[in-house]
Design a protein that fits this description.
Immunoglobulin-like, three-stranded antiparallel β-sheet, 17% helix, 36% strand
């Protein structure tokens, strides 16, 4: 009895598989046709940027600086975007930060800014001076440790 049920079940499964393949083959076009979907728009979290950002500084990032010292930070956007274009720069130092400021990019995709550790951002002593560049939703940070007085 069990062999008969197994044999019947097997026969039914073979029949369903063959029937499904026949229906699928019948639905396929005889020749390749152009797809109906022409473009796909990715959700924001799945999109990637066409630009790469890099940051360098003078003195070199990671060099300890002190009160009165200035740092120059340079952003490089690769490939250079069409002009006019600008990046935003924001200074963070310990618990303080300044508002974002737009810095124009040149034809090479480069933007440069200089900031000084002064009495207004003195609270950053013992922290680090971080210059965060943002372009097209991407960010990169140049950072310098600040010596305690």
């Amino acid at each position: 009895m069990t062999d008969q049920i197994d044999q019947t079940r097997r026969t039914v499964l073979h029949g369903l598989t063959a029937g499904g393949a026949a229906i699928t083959a019948r639905q396929l076009p005889g020749a390749w046709t152009r797809p109906v979907v022409e473009t796909v728009i990715l959700p924001a979290h799945a999109q990637t940027s066409e630009f790469q950002l890099s940051c360098s500084g003078s003195p070199p990032t990671g060099t300890t600086i002190g009160l009165g010292d200035s740092v120059m930070s340079t952003l490089q956007v690769i490939p250079p975007p069409p002009l006019p274009a600008s990046a935003t720069l924001r200074l963070f130092c310990g618990p303080t930060s300044d508002p974002e400021s737009p810095i124009p990019l040149d034809a090479n995709g480069t933007a440069t800014a200089t900031r000084t550790v002064n009495s207004q951002n003195l609270a950053c002593a013992g922290f680090s001076l971080d210059l965060r560049w943002t372009f097209e939703g991407q960010s990169v940070v140049c950072s310098w440790p600040v010596a305690a007085p």
